[in-house]
Design brief:
Helix content is 38%, strand content 17%. The chain is an alpha+beta fold and 222 residues long. It has a four-stranded mixed sheet, covered by helices on one side. Strand 1 and strand 2 form a beta hairpin. The two termini are 25 Å apart.
Length: 222
């Protein structure tokens, strides 16, 4: 990440006691992880160190996130809203744990559902592809009867790769016919079967996202 200039801090609207709410979001899958408060010092220290610092209202002191737990947050980028009174931090969460309960996200309680931050904790909402892979990975580790995904996984490479070949051909034909709806549907089918292959070979979808993210801004290939 390119160093960020602290000049933008002067454009922010802090509250009466010098604080501004900061929402942290996973830099790859967009999951909302936590919300805390920052003051000018926390922001300056975050920019200087590259690791997120907050202001603890309960302890009335600077809070280096993860300093004791090891679950630090590496800053990838900062945005602020149209009123300049809320920050959105794009971060890489060390250990994929941001909540003090041990959950990935502090936002694990859903309206009309009961969750205590334990093994039944609801995972945070992510982008559609990441959500899909999470379900596929669950099928991989905990098979379900009559599951199409498990049928593919049980068939191994022979069945999975055959389906990828079939779906690739159908996607090509949809493109050839210039049928937008069919193209979208066949692309979705192809992505699903690609993710099944990833799960079968123990490759996490986040690894694919990291490759794509790292290619962003890379030198152009001839």
């Amino acid at each position: 990440m390119q160093p960020l200039s602290p000049a933008f801090i002067d454009q922010l609207c802090f509250d009466d006691i010098g604080l501004i709410p900061a929402i942290s979001q996973d830099w790859l899958d967009g999951a909302v992880l936590m919300m805390a408060w920052m003051n000018r010092t926390a922001l300056e220290q975050t920019l200087k160190s590259g690791q997120v610092h907050y202001w603890s209202r309960s302890r009335q002191e600077l809070w280096h996130k993860g300093a004791t737990s090891g679950h630090t947050q590496i800053l990838k980028g900062i945005r602020y809203d149209c009123d300049a009174d809320v920050l959105l931090l794009s971060i890489e969460q060390t250990g994929l744990v941001s909540c003090h309960t041990g959950a990935r996200s502090c936002f694990f309680a859903e309206v009309n559902q009961h969750s205590q931050g334990d093994s039944l904790t609801l995972p945070p909402p992510m982008d559609a592809c990441s959500e899909l892979f999470r379900v596929i990975d669950q099928r991989h580790t905990t098979p379900e009867a009559n599951s199409y995904t498990n049928k593919l996984l049980e068939g191994g490479d022979n069945r999975i790769l055959k389906k990828i070949g079939e779906e690739s051909a159908e996607f090509v034909m949809a493109c050839k016919d210039d049928d937008a709806k069919a193209i979208a549907n066949e692309a979705a089918d192809l992505l699903f079967h690609l993710q099944v292959a990833l799960a079968h070979h123990g490759v996490n979808w986040r690894e694919v996202l990291e490759v794509l993210a790292n290619r962003r801004g890379a030198p152009r290939r001839n």
